[in-house]
């Protein structure tokens, strides 16, 4: 088979147990792609169909930055459900997550400010079986430390009795006291 490198799409198979398999796809669809959008939609569709044929009980998750790719076309072509309901950049839902299977009721989605500098919001998907919501707060702590000035370094070097290369360490004595 010919390897297609024009799409920025990666699929992983994760086997949790013998009967619990996940296929997780990561996708980046640039604002101005070098390919036809219909080609990407076709590739996504045939990949999802192949996974469903080969692993009928597997959960499928497709996530990423979809930019202008139509949400409805992905849903229609794959049968996956979109689980991100809030905008992720301005008023647009560019970063999306699609899922298959009955476990969607346990899955929760939070859209929050990204930890890295970005104009996109981060999408956090988690299992709600613990009934514990993730924290959205960041904590900042300022710690004081002792400043070392060039004058302090000069005083230290001036107090040295011998040049560092001339110090002969005796292997039988304590290295700390030798220092």
Report on this structure:
The chain is of the alpha+beta class. Helices cover 22% and strands 25% of the residues. The chain contains 4 helices and 7 strands, in the order E-E-H-E-H-E-E-E-E-H-H. The chain has helices spanning 37-54, 71-78, 150-159, 175-178; strands spanning 8-17, 20-28, 59-65, 81-82, 95-99, 107-112, 122-127. The strands form 2 sheets. A 5-stranded mixed sheet has the order 1-2-3-5-4, with no helix packed on it. A two-stranded antiparallel sheet has the order 6-7. Strand 2 (20-28), helix 1 (37-54) and strand 3 (59-65) form a beta-alpha-beta unit. The longest helix has 18 residues, at 37-54.
Set down the secondary structure blueprint:
Layout: E1 8-17, E2 20-28, H1 37-54, E3 59-65, H2 71-78, E4 81-82, E5 95-99, E6 107-112, E7 122-127, H3 150-159, H4 175-178
Parallel strand pairs: 2-3
Antiparallel strand pairs: 1-2, 3-5, 4-5, 6-7
Share of helix, binned? 10-25%
Counting copies of identical and different chains, the oligomeric state is single chain
- The rough form would be described as elongated
Distance between the termini: 65 Å
Largest sheet: 5 strands, mixed
**Residue-averaged pLDDT, rounded?**
81
Strand content: 25-35%
How many strand segments?
7
Report the C-alpha radius of gyration, rounded: 28 Å
Number of helices: 4
Strand order of the largest sheet: 1-2-3-5-4
Give the H and E element order.
Answer: EEHEHEEEEHH
- Residue windows where pLDDT falls under 50 for at least 5 positions: none
Derived structural class: alpha+beta
